[in-house]
Specification:
Number of strands: 2
Structural class: mainly alpha
Order of helices and strands: HHHHEEHHHHHHHHHHHH
Radius of gyration: 18 Å
């Protein structure tokens, strides 16, 4: 079953890669090269969530949304890796963009990828009602900006500057913004474009978003950089509060399992149609990168 899921994810990732490559090929080489570099690799997990969310409502034509969320995610990684942020040298098994190019190019590339993500979303109007597309774009902006991902990053930096370890509730709220907001958007694309209630998929997204971050914290302790494709052990070295530091390794693993159970319960209204999303929840806490 896991092999089937990996194969399905790989097929959708390839579609997104091809779509993004075609858009980048239209650009001036000065921007095309670093943008293409930033977009290469990765599981394209958020795009897969978009695809599966749409499948529940028998929707086609969501490739622009799948590509948009990955362009946005790539921008966030490029900026997150900068010396002024997390200061990382390795991403997806290669030098981070500011190492492969330079800091200024990384900043501009992130800016360009964010702009591209909104441009891609506008292509949805070819297949879906304008009111639904506008709603999706508004939610996209909210999840990416000062009420979502950017807020979470700011909260993370503020905690480091204050040198005040966060409590468990604080970390959960921070990660609901920094990581969870994009999961929420991705998992609710289907009901928004179908004009349906998104409660069940929003609940699912919140649970797997938290599970994803708990697993990241576990991998920072148990993982290795060769497999993960990025540095590990940084949180402990920095004395940063994480789910592992607060719950212990076994406690964090139990918490991840609880999140998966919550996610699967949220999918009950969809019955067997949500089988792949249930498998995805299991995959999130079994991944090694």
């Amino acid at each position: 079953m896991r092999a089937d899921l990996i194969s399905l994810m790989a097929a959708q990732a390839q579609r997104v890669d091809q779509h993004l490559a075609a858009r980048c090929d239209r650009l001036d080489p000065l921007m095309q090269k670093p943008m293409a570099y930033a977009l290469q690799g990765g599981k394209k997990l958020r795009a897969f969530l978009v695809h599966q969310s749409a499948q529940l409502y028998d929707l086609d034509g969501v490739l622009p949304a799948m590509s948009a969320i990955e362009a946005l995610h790539a921008y966030s990684l490029v900026h997150d890796d900068l010396p002024a942020m997390d200061d990382d040298d390795l991403r997806r098994g290669r030098p981070t963009l500011h190492k492969a190019f330079d800091d200024a190019t990384a900043i501009l590339t992130g800016d360009a990828l964010q702009a591209l993500s909104f441009e891609l979303l506008c292509d949805l109007e070819q297949d879906f009602p304008r009111t639904y597309v506008l709603s999706l774009i508004q939610r996209f902006a909210r999840s990416a900006g000062a009420a979502g991902m950017v807020l979470g990053q700011a909260q993370d930096i503020a905690a480091e500057i204050a040198d005040t370890p966060l409590g468990l509730d604080d970390i959960a709220k921070l990660q609901a913004n920094k990581t969870g907001a994009l999961f929420w958007w991705s998992a609710t694309v289907g009901p928004v474009l179908a004009g349906k209630d998104d409660t069940a998929l929003a609940d699912y997204a919140r649970a797997i978003g938290l599970a994803f971050q708990v697993q990241d914290d576990i991998l920072d302790v148990e993982g290795d950089s060769a497999t993960a494709g990025k540095a590990v052990g940084k949180d402990a070295d920095a004395g940063k509060a994480t789910f592992v530091s607060l719950l212990g390794l076994d406690g964090a693993k139990d918490a991840a399992q609880t999140c998966v159970a919550t996610a699967k319960e949220a999918l009950m209204p969809f019955g067997d149609r949500a089988a792949t999303l249930r498998q995805l929840a299991d995959f999130i806490i079994s991944r090694q990168k």
